[in-house]
Amino acid sequence: MENININNVDLIISAVAKEQYPVHDLKEIAMCGRSNVGKSSFINSILSRNNIARVSSKPGKTKTINFFNIDNKKVLVDIPGYGYAKVSKNIREKLYDMIVEYFINSKNLACVFHLLDSRHKPSEEDIMMNEFLNYYKIPFYVILTKTDKISKNELSKNQKKIENLLDLSFNLGIISYSIISKKNKNFILDKIINI
């Protein structure tokens, strides 16, 4: 395992266009998901920080692509959440374009962590994102969030439904996570470190 201090994290830049992406030779691991999937909480929990990624009671707050340097070894990329109905169509389209532009143009993208709410079947937007990742042959993990809110039995059933609905051609694994119990935290960190 690579020696990495996961607590040494700095925001490099918040970008809205490819011209602003930071220039470096580190592997990027991108975090994406619906705007209410708990992405900011997941990032903060994994990195043992309270507010490296801004958590809001209102979904859809992240409107930029945020690049975080982890100990000069990896770059974690926080992608704006998609599918938030309460923002205007114009803003939704701009965010979608921003996400697509990053996935297509990043020269350093090594892997995507696609976050899905473990309590529900994937939304139309989740399936579109899944299709996009496979179409562009981007390796990805599926992270099932909010697993503390359902029973083990429900989680198992829901995971099977998710597996049946998604294209797992470029999937590297499906990992469940709870910010309460932090079960699988070290496993996820191991994946980030060794990508």
From TrEMBL:
Signal peptide: none annotated. Residues 25-195 form the EngB-type G domain. It holds the Pfam family MMR_HSR1. InterPro entries: G_ENGB_dom, GTP-bd, GTP-bd_ribosome_bio_YsxC, P-loop_NTPase, Small_GTP-bd. SUPFAM superfamilies: P-loop containing nucleoside triphosphate hydrolases. The keyword Ligase does not apply. Its cofactor is Mg(2+). Keywords: Cell cycle, Cell division, GTP-binding, Magnesium, Metal-binding, Nucleotide-binding, Septation. Belongs to the TRAFAC class TrmE-Era-EngA-EngB-Septin-like GTPase superfamily. EngB GTPase family. Necessary for normal cell division and for the maintenance of normal septation. This is Probable GTP-binding protein EngB. The gene is engB.
